[in-house]
Amino acid sequence: MNKSLSTIDISVLDLAMVVEGKTPADTFKTSLDLAQHTEKWKYNRYWLAEHHNMEGIASSATSILIGHVASGTSTIRVGSGGIMLPNHAPLIIAEQFGTLATLFPNRIDLGLGRAPGTDQFTAMALRRDQRAAMEFPKNVQELQTYLSAANKNGRVRAIPGEGLDIPIWILGSSTDSAHLAAALGLPYAFASHFAPAQLHAALAIYHQNFRPSVHLKEPFTMACVNVIAADTDLEAETLATSFKKLFLGIITGKRELLKAPLNPEEDFMDPMEEAALQQMIAYSFIGGPAKVANDIQQFLDKTQVDELMITSAIFDHSARLHSYEIVSNLKMM
To answer: In the chain, what are the domains?
Structure first.
């Protein structure tokens, strides 16, 4: 059955960005405000991602921030997109998310990734074992054991956490994670908002190799994309200059806070930089309502994902809210 914008669930990835002139404290306030608005607009999930040693991203203590958002909302699911499991002992994550799921029943998601979410030096400061990424599959299964009711006689138990029905997602930006999600029979979320190249290959691998499990009987996929919507195409293109400068900084190694938008006709990158940028942000839908609706529908037609997650790096908070509101209105058309 074809997926359509009007029937598919849409969710939010909040990268907890610190905008120029503001502080992490401001970010936490705007994150909660965005969560409250998107809950009202019937978004399905609100996920936060673990990053470290990044001046422009304030979600390093991801579990705490999830609790902050969940405590200020009542129906939207809140979770991690994701927890970088190699940075942590599986038992610690089982206890943290067991605590969250106890405080906020039937509302917590646990998305797991294998990347460090940071640079090599910070990974060492996190006491990250260099072999941890290779042991990711084993650590996911250890975490599943701690969260299972069958572990009640285990020598090591997660209290709270044991026996709680916390949905675990495998996250990925390459094909490796697709094999794991399929083998474990878990839902799969792909980070096509910054790593578009292997999206279609990863989805195909997941579907072809999926094994039903007690958690999931049929494959379930979600993809994350960038969306910057405004009342007009020109206004959206203007707002998108902040987002493009941010990603350009990632490519060039000159990371900065999210900056105010520029005139979109201003020449702020050379042709080689622009080519690299366009490759990285291929799944970015920028424009007025009609253009964004058309672009999203084309993406759904090509990928047939079961759920769409959107992230919007917009400098002005009110403009970011309006972007999410536009998408929610498109869904109801």
So the answer is: 9-331 (3.20.20.30)
